[in-house]
Amino acid sequence: xxxxxxxxxxxxxxxxxxxxxxxxxxxxxxxxxxxxxxxxxxxxxxxxxxxxxxxxxxxxxxxxxxxxxxxxxxxxxxxxxxxxxxxxxxxxxxxxxxxxxxxxxxxxxxxxxxxxxxxxxxxxxxxxxxxxxxxxxxxxxxxxxxxxxxxxxxxxxxxxxxxxxxxxxxxxxxxxxxxxxxxxxxxxxxxxxxxxxxxxxxxxxxxxxxxxxxxxxxxxxxxxxxxxxxxxxxxxxxxxxxxxx
Length: 245
Known about the structure:
The protein has 245 residues and is of the alpha/beta class. The protein contains 10 helices and 8 strands. The protein has one domain: TIM Barrel (Alpha-Beta Barrel).
């Protein structure tokens, strides 16, 4: 699973096709979409027309808990829209009520056994919910996608995921004022990088998956160009300190 992915939340229609195409041209090999985003068809079209071999791209989509009882039909609809016979990762988009999480998770296990999803995971789950579905089914989520940035950094949350061997994937890393914070701006200026590049680099050096999104070609390309520098230990500690500890 590439640590750097391209997020497509709130990108619709032709914008979704164009942005995804630019991302693939810029070197992204991880695309993140969801049933409720309403853009799986556009993401699938961009991938199909890109000339990039399907096996080189890690594709994630998500199932809302409202589809309880219709999970496999939902996934098959996603696959049709994405123009592929499998996704690399299928997530429960957010927790459902009562026992629905376990019921959905069992269906996710079936999808993996059928080869429709290479791996399965969840989104917006806390540690108690991660344990609930794992213990009830014997299947541990491969990934938990949660809102994450230096502002939300929490060592306990990181430890909870690592203890369970669950990959922490962050979304909305470039929202909530992170691009304007003085600490981040100071590091960016010193490194001759953008604030977004600093934040993305922080994720990568921690081993967190990050999926920045944009509809602007220059930003999409810039966000992908994070391999040419490394944040020092002091800068990483300063960024960590912006969070909960």
